[in-house]
Structures are given as C-alpha cells and as structure tokens.
Specification:
Elements: H1 2-137, H2 141-189, E1 200-204, H3 209-215, H4 220-229, E2 232-234, E3 241-245, H5 249-265, H6 270-299, H7 306-314, E4 319-320, E5 323-324, H8 325-343, H9 347-355, H10 371-381, H11 386-394, H12 403-417, H13 426-440, E6 446-452, E7 457-462, H14 469-486, E8 494-499
Parallel strand pairs: 7-8
Antiparallel strand pairs: 1-3, 2-3, 4-5, 6-7
Helix pairs in contact: 2-8, 4-6, 5-6, 6-7, 8-9, 8-12, 9-11, 9-12, 10-11, 11-12
Length: about 500
C-alpha cells in the first residue's frame, strides 16, 4: 500500500510540474514576442524618417535641374534668334546677287545673239563670194581645191624627196655609228661557244651482239622502242653504236636513256622496254628541272615559280635552226644586260627580258600559235613583270613595246647571226634565197633583184623612168613589209633599193 501511495504521489508531482513548466514557457514566449514587436516598430519609424529626408533631398535636386534647364533653354532661344537674323541677312544678300547675275546673263545672251546674227550674215556673204568666184573661174570648189593641191604636190615633190633623203642620211649616219659601237662592244665582251645540233643521237653499245638483242625476234623489240618513243633507231654496220633519229630532242633523249637502262639490265623485251621508257621519262623530267635551275642560277635570277623553272628546263631539249635555245637564251640575256648598261637602263630587268624572250618555244610544238604569243601567255600566267612579258611578245615586231623590247631584239639578232650558231642545208639555203628574191621582185618598176650576204640583204634595182626618188622610199618600205609578212627568217633582212640614171654619149 505504501508503494501505491508513493507511485501516486510521484504521478501527481509530474502532472503538477508539467503544467507549471507549460505556463512558465508561455509567459517567457509572450515577453519575447512583445520585445520583437517593439523593435520592429522602432525600425519602421526610422525607415519612414529616412524616406522623408530622401524625398526632400530629391525634390531640392529636381528643382535645381529644372532651373538650370530653363536657363539653358533661354540661352538657346537667344542664340537661335541671332542665327536666324544672320541667315535672313545672308538670304537678302544672295537674292540681290542672283538678281544682278540674271541681269548680266541676259545682257550676255543679247550679245551672243548679236554675234551669231553677224556670223550668219558673214557666212551668207562668204557663200555669195564663193558662188561669184566659181562663176568667174568656171570651176567648183572641189575642182579648184584638187587643182591647187595637185600643183603644190608637183612643185614640192622633188624638194620634199630631197629633204627626206638629206634628213634620213644625216640621222642614219649618226645613229648607225653609235649603234655599231654599242653592238660591237657587246659582241666583243660576250664570248660563247656555238655548235649547231643535229637531229640524231648516238648510243654506244658494249658489243655488236647487242644490236641483235635490241632488234629482237622478228623486230618486236625495236618496233616497241620506236612506237613508245616516237624516234627511229638506225642500226647499221657502224661498230658499237646505234643512231637514234628524230626531230624532237626530248624524244631522242628518252629513247637514249631507255636504251642505256635496257643494256645495263640485259633483259630486253617489250614489257621491260615499257618499264624503262617510263623510268626514262621520269629521269628526264628531273633533268629538265635541274637544267632550268642551273640556267637561272647561272644568270642570278631568283624568285621564279617551280613550274616556270621546269618550262625553262625544256629549252635544253629545244633547237631553232640547229641552235640550242637554252644556250641562245643565256647568251641573249648576257648581251641584253651589256647593251642596257651602255644605255643606262636596268641591267637586271634587261637580263630577264633576254632570257625569257623565247620561253614560248618550250611548248610551241604542243600548243598552237606563234612562240612570241605563247611566251607572253606563259609569263603573264606566272605574274611576271609586264616589260618582260612584252619583250617576249614583241622581240620579232617592228614596233617594240619599250626600250627593253628593242634591246632584246638586237641581242637576239646578234646571237642568231654568230658564225656557227645556226645551220641550213644547201637546198634550204638556196630555196630561201629564191623565195626572198621572188618576194622582192613582185612589184612594178623593178628591174633586177639580188639576195646577198647569205640572205641578210636584198638589193633591188628599179627602172629610173618608172620609179622616181619619192616613190623609191615607199617602194622599199612595201618590199620590207611583204618580206616580213610572207617569209620566215632569223634576225633581220636589209632592203637596199638602187635607182640609177646613166646617160652615155660618144664624141666622134
């Protein structure tokens, strides 16, 4: 029982403690809430006070800005009134000037009308005078003009021809002497070896037994070589050698390289021939590029496109009248630089003009057209200087583009005219002289024509009773122009026209 009482007392104590704690906690929470509300009201009051202060400050600033804006507006209005007054004053001045100008224009127009009227009256009087003169002379204006011009021409024909001959003789003597000195100096300073190339190449073989192996069974090997290379193999009794014949030096070189590789290998059959011909073409392409690089390095020309270098290398295997073009171009480059130095122009540019003048011959056998036009197109494609491209285009023309074209033309003629530089067969030589004489003799009034100095000069004898001195000048130009248009020749041809009157009488 005592235990029951004790448990009951503890339970009551717990219940009483719980309610006491609950009321205490409630009192404490209520006191804290009242304190927070008081703080919040205080902060809100302070915020409202600051807000009022900021509003008053903003209103003061706004008032100041409005006052300043009103002052600026007032100043602008004053300035605008001043500007308007000045503009009105200027407008009045312009109106006055315009009225004065219109008045002057009216007066000038009146004067122009009067002048035109006077001019019309003068023209009428002149026409009346012309009609009166035509009636008196019995000739129209055109007929009188024709007779007057004819009389003046007849009277001055002989004097004019004499003056032309005198001036041309004086000028030609002076310039010819200077040109001779300049050209001779360039020739003497530039020494080059010359050897006209042929249309065949010799391939050395180890023994004559190799000839049969190159021919092959029923000639299949030699036929394959000739078909692939486009050259003809001449196998005769000449010991230890085979001749490769063809007009293209490139094809001859391919055939020669292929034969040398086949003989070194020893297995000569159509399949091997095709393989070594392709290898020969590859080796030749490398050799062509190397030849172009060596030629440009020798002349000190740099900055050239690699493709153009390869085109330059092709000139090693190109000939003209038997003259190797890369050697010819190199010589023309040196001669051009020497002539340019004497004339005081750019030597480096003249050297480039001389070297690239025949670049068109590298591809003229594969491309249609004359080599000067082809060369110009190639050089323009690789953005070469216009002077250099024009030198290539006009080095055979009578109207050079500039002084560089004239220099290259002279250097080209010197190089082609050197002894041994070019070759001609006897039949070609005779045929060329006959064509030259035939072209020059196709004009009326010509008595005889002679081609002399290996076809570099044509002497024309005319009938003096049909060709006078004045007509002789024009006839010589016509002959030279016809030769240029109809014939192909290296260098230049001089046309000498001779008019001679002989009177013979005997004293008995």
């Amino acid at each position: 029982m005592n235990e029951i009482y004790i448990i009951g007392g503890v339970a009551v104590s717990l219940v009483v403690g719980f309610f006491v704690g609950y009321f205490l906690r409630k009192k404490i929470a209520q006191a804290q809430a009242n304190s927070a509300e008081a703080k919040a009201e205080k902060m809100l009051l302070e915020a409202k006070t600051k807000q009022q202060e900021h509003i008053l400050l903003g209103q003061e600033k706004a008032s100041k800005i409005i006052e300043e804006a009103k002052k600026e507006d007032q100043q602008m209005r004053v300035e605008l009134r001043s500007i308007k007054a000045r503009l009105e004053q200027r407008e009045n001045m312009f109106d006055q000037k315009l009225l004065e100008f219109q008045d002057k224009q009216t007066k000038l127009q009146d004067k122009v009308d009067k002048v035109n009227q006077i001019k019309t009256e003068i023209e009428k009087l002149r026409e009346q005078e012309v009609v009166t003169l035509q009636k008196i002379a019995g000739l129209t204006r055109e007929e009188a003009k024709e007779q007057l011009l004819k009389k003046v021409e007849d009277d001055s024909k002989v004097d004019l021809a004499g003056r032309i001959m005198k001036v041309q003789k004086e000028d030609s003597e002076v310039y010819l002497e200077k040109a001779r000195e300049l050209v001779l100096g360039a020739i003497q300073r530039c020494a080059s070896s010359h050897a006209a190339e042929t249309t065949s190449s010799i391939v050395n073989i180890p023994s004559d037994e190799m000839k049969g192996r190159i021919i092959g069974k029923e000639g299949r090997n030699i036929k394959t070589i000739e078909k692939l290379t486009g050259c003809e193999l001449v196998i005769d009794d000449t010991p230890e050698s085979i001749m490769v014949s063809g007009f293209s030096p490139i094809r001859r070189q391919i055939a020669k390289l292929a034969l040398e590789k086949l003989m070194a290998d020893g297995r000569i059959q159509p399949a091997r021939i095709e393989e070594y011909v392709e290898k020969a073409k590859q080796d030749l392409a490398l050799d062509i590029k190397k030849a172009g690089e060596e030629a440009l390095y020798k002349l000190g020309i740099t900055g050239i496109d690699p493709k153009l270098v390869s085109i330059v290398g092709r000139l090693k295997y190109r000939t003209s009248y038997g003259q190797n073009i890369v050697n010819h171009s190199t010589e023309v480059a040196y001669l051009s630089a020497m002539i340019a130095a004497e004339l005081g122009v750019d030597e480096a540019k003249a050297k480039k003009c001389g070297f690239f003048h025949d670049i068109g011959k590298a591809v003229d056998q594969e491309t249609q057209g004359p080599h000067p036009e082809i060369g110009y197109a190639i050089l323009k494609k690789f953005n070469i200087d216009e002077d250099i491209a024009q030198a290539a285009k006009t080095h055979h023309s009578d109207q050079p583009y500039n002084i560089f074209s004239s220099i290259v033309k002279a250097a080209d003629a010197i190089s082609g005219a050197r002894m041994g530089a070019r070759k001609d067969t006897y039949e070609q030589f005779v045929a060329r002289l006959e064509e030259l004489e035939k072209a020059a003799s196709g004009f009326p009034g010509i008595e005889k024509v002679y081609a002399i100095q290996a076809g570099r000069e044509v002497r024309v004898f005319v009938k003096p009773n049909e060709i006078d001195d004045y007509s002789a000048f024009q006839l010589a130009k016509d002959i030279a122009r016809k030769i240029e248009q109809e014939l192909q020749y290296p260098g230049e041809i001089r046309v000498t026209l001779i008019r001679e009157t002989r009177v013979v009488e005997y004293a008995k």
